[in-house]
Amino acid sequence: MNYQIDFEPVGRRVQVTESVSILQAAQDGGVGLAAVCGGVGTCGRCRVQVLSGQVSPPTPAELGLLDADELAAGYRLACQTEVRSDLKVHVPPASLTAPQRLQVEGRELPVAPAPPVNAHAVRLSAPSRTDIRSDEARLRAALPAPDLPVDVA
Questions:
Q1: Cα separation of 125 and 21, whole Å?
Q2: Who's near 71: CB < 8 A, 6+ residues apart?
């Protein structure tokens, strides 16, 4: 049977089959959940909170690492908890491998563009026998400001 897991506040939705661990689902969905012990249930770093849905009963490893209040609040070890229905899972910041970066507000400052390179469209007259200047000299004379640096490479 296929189930859907929503990882909050990460914003990922993963499709899984029954009896897959939450940790495996997170890894398959690109959610960076910490699992220092490799998913054997000894470190407690993959702690998540199951907000809704049905999961497997707590394992002895979970009973040793989580107290009764945490279990009552829905906290589980992702590596030890198997999916039994659609889930909504909250991932605390401490359980992520990298801190989540999210900017929700900020200041907009007026910034005038000042690129290090500017292009100027210049039309030069064809060289003639009366104007014996080089192409570079004629180009510099046609620019809007005589002191602009020119790279003719």
A1: 75
A2: 58, 62, 63
Coil, strand or helix at 3: strand
Q: What's the pLDDT band for 101 if we cut at 50, 70, 90?
A: low
Q: For residue 14, what are the β-bridge partners?
A: 5
CATH architecture of 2-95: Roll (3.10)
Consecutive H or E run containing 47? strand 47-52
Instruction: List C-alpha distances in Å: 78 to 3, 7, 22, 119, 139.
Output: 16, 12, 5, 56, 69
DSSP E strands: which ranges in 53-141? 75-77, 87-90
Gap between the Cα atoms of 43 and 39, Å rounded = 9
Q: Are 77 and 71 in contact (CB under 8 A)?
A: no
**Domain residue extents for the chain:** 2-95
Bridge partner residues of 89 (DSSP): 7, 50
Please choose, from the candidates 21, 17, 38, 2, the residue with its C-alpha nearest in 3D space to the C-alpha of residue 89.
Answer: 21
Q: What percent of the chain has pLDDT over 70?
A: 94
Spatial neighbors of 54 by CB under 8 A, at least 6 apart, are: 84, 85
- For β-strands 2-8 and 87-90, DSSP reports them as parallel
